[in-house]
Amino acid sequence: MSDGALRVGLVGLGVHARSVLLPALEALPDVRVVGAADPDEGARRGCAVPSWSSTDDLLDSSGAEAVVVSVPPGVSGEAARAVAARGLHLYLEKPCGASAADVAAIAADVERTDRVVAAGLNYRSDAGVQHLRGALRAGAVGEPVTARAVFTVAAPAAGSWRAGTVLRDLGVHEADLLRFVLDEPVRAVTATVSTPGHGVQIATVCAELGSLQASLVLGFGAAEHAALEVIGTEGRVQVDQWDAPWLVHHRSQAAGPVRALGGRLRAALGPAGLLSALRRPPGGGSHASALGLWAAACRGGAVGAAARVRLPTLDDARRALAVVEAAERSAATGSRVVVD
């Protein structure tokens, strides 16, 4: 570890923080985790880095210059404001607040300095999503017509804040990805939520993005799967965000367009080219990529400046949460709801 390592603190030692965020941070070059905070003594007892019971104690005693906050949404604002008040860089895990209005208020308070502030919308940093976005910008599918996404995971542990909130927990990611890859905001939604039992909860969302429509399927208590597909006038691109190898497919209805589009898709996707299986690169997945980008921005310089413009913002999180809130209202009322 270099003497110039970025000193990072972690607020929150829940399952996600211990099993995903902390290992990802510890694996990053030029990053040193200097401490963590959580009021739960049991969570602190199993932590391999120095730990404190309060956020203030961590910030006062660890020497951290950048902090990752991973706590339930109802208390994330308090922790984020404490980090910002000390002039430290901030990475705030999604959903970043209890509501879109709450996220907007947090952003207004913590983005007043030149410190780096990023939202934990890590799926933007997924290698497959990046390839898909590049393919769309290269015209690989022609004009996008529709998109569909599936995101299903095991049921959350009993007592977790995530339990019973499939739209809020998983929908934030997918709402953000739609806007990220398609460059169109979600303007209205129609949603349903079913709970057949045994911890299973399935939400379906029809999202309107201008003239384009997208469908989302979100689920708790199902086999883990995350995939995103965009279909256009001349082809389609699909990415599996978790499986290896992840696949990016392209099809066209006529031989002429296949030949013409092959060059464009190869330009977007690299040597793997058309209709090929692309292996996910090593590096710990989207969390490691997202945290690495944030850490680079925190270190500054030319590399940091380039990284900073690519970071998801708290306004991105607010927009995604506004879509989720509209979907929750739609599921409750059975009506189409315009996104605020």
User: How many separate helices?
Assistant: 11
Describe the largest sheet: 7 strands, mixed
The CATH topology annotation of the largest domain reads as Dihydrodipicolinate Reductase, domain 2
**Could you say which overall geometry the principal axes of the C-alpha atoms support?**
globular
What does this structure look like?
This protein is an alpha/beta fold and about 350 residues long. The chain folds into 2 domains: about 5-115, Rossmann fold; about 125-285, Dihydrodipicolinate Reductase, domain 2. About 40% of the residues lie in helices and about 25% in strands. The chain has 11 helices and 15 strands. It has helices spanning about 15-25, 40-45, 55-60, 75-85, 100-110, 125-135, 165-180, 255-270, 285-300, 300-310, 315-335; strands at about 5-10, 30-35, 50, 65-70, 90-95, 115-120, 145-155, 190-195, 200-210, 210-220, 225-230, 235-240, 245-250, 275-280, 335-340. The strands form 3 sheets. The protein has a 7-stranded mixed β-sheet. Helix 4 (about 75-85) runs parallel beside helix 5 (about 100-110), helix 6 packs across helix 8 and helix 9 (about 285-300) packs across helix 10. It is globular, with a radius of gyration of 20 Å.
Would you kindly provide a brief summary of this structure?
The chain is an alpha/beta fold and 340 residues long. It contains 11 helices and 15 strands.
